[in-house]
Amino acid sequence: MEQDRPCAEEPNDPRELDCMYKEADRVYYLFARDCGLSTCAYWMLYDVERAGGTVEMRVLSDSWAYSKQTINSAIKAMEAKGLIELGFVEGSRRNKTVSLTEAGEAFADRYIRPAQQAERRAFCSLTPQERRALLDHARAYTNALVAEMNRIRATAAERNGKGEDA
């Protein structure tokens, strides 16, 4: 059946974009696995490094669509490997920070920063006009997708609300 094909050949079919996103996700999954990390742990370390070595746990939770449990498991695994340490936000007894340890800095030098540099090289291999167009189009598509998905969610919530009243 035509609908079951994983990728579309027509440029007006969003399945091609889905395939590209999945391919990029697979690249990061394989890279994280080669680093000895889960994908979630990789992205958490990526964000800690990008933040300069320390970031609030709340920022990590807010940045990703991972569940709190998944993030906490990734944090515990990285802590057990000695890559990060947890602390508290100054003046708080509740809000935690995640910081790279010396081993975490070495890990970031070996795996995270080279990946970030590869991303930059790949992005900069496009012309400035291509980069701008890519960002503009990706933003427009994401905004349209969010609006469409929110519309579906609102309709489902209405239906569920009416179904509960009946």
TrEMBL record:
<dbReference type="InterPro" id="IPR023187">
    <property type="entry name" value="Tscrpt_reg_MarR-type_CS"/>
</dbReference>
<feature type="domain" description="HTH marR-type">
    <location>
        <begin position="1"/>
        <end position="143"/>
    </location>
</feature>
<dbReference type="Pfam" id="PF12802">
    <property type="entry name" value="MarR_2"/>
</dbReference>
<dbReference type="InterPro" id="IPR039422">
    <property type="entry name" value="MarR/SlyA-like"/>
</dbReference>
<dbReference type="InterPro" id="IPR000835">
    <property type="entry name" value="HTH_MarR-typ"/>
</dbReference>
<keyword id="KW-0804">Transcription</keyword>
<keyword id="KW-0238">DNA-binding</keyword>
<keyword id="KW-0805">Transcription regulation</keyword>
<dbReference type="InterPro" id="IPR036390">
    <property type="entry name" value="WH_DNA-bd_sf"/>
</dbReference>
<protein>
    <submittedName>
        <fullName>MarR family winged helix-turn-helix transcriptional regulator</fullName>
    </submittedName>
</protein>
<dbReference type="InterPro" id="IPR036388">
    <property type="entry name" value="WH-like_DNA-bd_sf"/>
</dbReference>
